[in-house]
Specification:
Blueprint (H helix, E strand, L loop, with lengths): L14 H6 E6 L3 E6 L6 E6 L12 H22 L3 E5 L10 E6 L22 H13 L3
Antiparallel strand pairs: 1-2, 2-3, 3-5, 4-5
Helix pairs in contact: 2-3
């Protein structure tokens, strides 16, 4: 079966993800980024595979590694935030580059119990975003 991406191509992050997220860390497969939205602790995981738009575009080894990294990042986000629920999704309706959302949810948050999509973004207070990034890095031991 033909692959949808060329592993020899240089990885480039989609411009919308660059504009709407800040870097947290790089794992073996994924770039981990924080959505620039204080309403929800919301991580984006982007496999560094140019041209991949679906999980099935990854080879078997990368799919397995993606699931392992999703579990690690999910555990770190839960540890860092004490959330009530984790939402994990790979949608890609607006950004065609393969990326996985890992969102910490709390009973009583702005969208609870509905999905976060369409909720107005809120700015972080000064220093709050950086503090959250440090807390997540420490939780997954990325520093």
């Amino acid at each position: 079966m033909a692959r949808a991406y060329n592993p020899g191509m240089a990885f480039q992050l989609h411009e919308r993800l660059v504009a709407e997220t800040v870097p947290v860390s790089g794992l073996n497969l994924c770039e981990v980024r924080l959505m620039d939205n204080a309403a929800f602790p919301w991580l984006i995981m982007v496999p560094r595979r140019e041209g991949a738009s679906e999980i099935i575009d990854l080879d078997a080894g990368d799919r397995q590694l993606l699931m392992t990294e999703i579990a690690e990042v999910s555990e770190a986000l839960r540890k860092a935030t004490g959330c009530d629920k984790l939402n994990v999704a790979a949608l890609g309706n607006q950004v065609p580059q393969l990326h996985v959302h890992v969102i910490a949810r709390f009973r009583g948050d702005l969208a609870w119990p509905k999905p976060v999509w369409g909720t107005e973004s809120q700015p972080f207070a000064p220093g709050e975003r950086e503090a959250l990034v440090r807390k997540i890095k420490a939780a997954v031991e990325l520093e």
